[in-house]
């Protein structure tokens, strides 16, 4: 199939979200002069955050609720006099500063931009994604950034991709492919919209779900094999 548009997820596909998350959480603890333990706090936070993002994808909670609830749950039982809204704002500010990319992300975007329109499609928060992308080396290769908060719908909702078509001015259903690390968000979203999909799976996780991508890659450079 001849594609015109390549849609990339942001976190975990182009940007190193594990690094960003760890940096932002530790920096936030230091900002508020709180004792921080990577072993204790980061692993707990990641579990909480992962589960809440699944709820967001499924439409069970709002982005505003996620912002607060993840820290309310993290600090539950600690008796700290914290303003969770302020803590969340500080955390997101640190998160927006991180431009660390996945290995091969810059090279593959530079390569593909010569042949295709590159679009980032993300469920991430606007106040984080816009600054980090604009301050990254990818900014010259990405033509559009489509964010769920602007669309009013999250991947995998087909209406997110309707919005993407509108923003890009492209009938993406007929000429695009989506590449991402999340089966439930990126790949299911592509399937829901009738798009070819490519699962970025660097850890070579076993897919035990019923969600079947068209392609699967371990490294982003493998995209050159079929794009």
Decide which structural class fits the backbone. Answer: alpha/beta
Shape: globular
Mean of pLDDT: 95
The CATH architecture category of the largest domain equals 3-Layer(aba) Sandwich
Give the topology string: H per helix, E per strand. EHHHHHEHEHHHEHEE
Roughly how much helix do the residues carry, as a percent range? Answer: 40-55%
CATH class wording of the largest domain: Alpha Beta
Residue fraction in strands? 5-15%
Number of helices: 10
Straight-line distance between termini = 9 Å
Number of spatially distinct domains: 2
CATH fold naming of the largest domain: Rossmann fold
Order of strands in the sheet with most strands: 3-2-1-4-5-6
Q: What is the radius of gyration computed over CA atoms, rounded to a whole number of angstroms?
A: 18 Å
Largest sheet: 6 strands, parallel
CATH superfamily of the largest domain: HAD superfamily/HAD-like
How many β-strands, per DSSP?
6
Low-confidence stretches: none
């Amino acid at each position: 199939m001849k594609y015109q548009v390549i849609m990339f997820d942001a976190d975990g596909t182009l940007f190193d979200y594990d690094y960003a998350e760890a940096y932002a959480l530790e920096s936030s603890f230091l900002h508020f002069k709180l004792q921080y333990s990577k072993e204790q706090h980061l692993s707990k936070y990641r579990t909480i955050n992962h589960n809440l993002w699944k709820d967001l994808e499924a439409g069970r909670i709002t982005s505003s609720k996620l912002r607060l609830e993840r820290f309310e749950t993290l600090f539950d039982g600690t008796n700290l006099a914290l303003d969770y809204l302020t803590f969340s704002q500080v955390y997101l500010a640190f998160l927006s500063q991180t431009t660390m990319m996945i290995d091969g992300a810059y090279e593959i975007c530079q390569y593909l931009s010569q042949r295709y329109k590159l679009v980032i499609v993300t469920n991430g928060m606007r106040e984080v994604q816009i600054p980090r992308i604009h301050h990254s080396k990818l900014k010259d290769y990405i033509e559009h950034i489509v964010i769920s908060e602007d669309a009013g719908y999250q991947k995998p909702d087909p209406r997110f991709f309707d919005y993407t078509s509108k923003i890009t001015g492209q009938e993406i259903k007929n000429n695009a492919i989506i590449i991402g690390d999340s089966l439930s968000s990126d790949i299911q979203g592509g399937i829901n919209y009738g798009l070819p999909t490519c699962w970025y799976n660097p850890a070579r996780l076993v897919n035990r779900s019923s969600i079947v991508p068209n392609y699967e890659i371990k490294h982003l450079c493998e995209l050159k094999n079929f794009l």
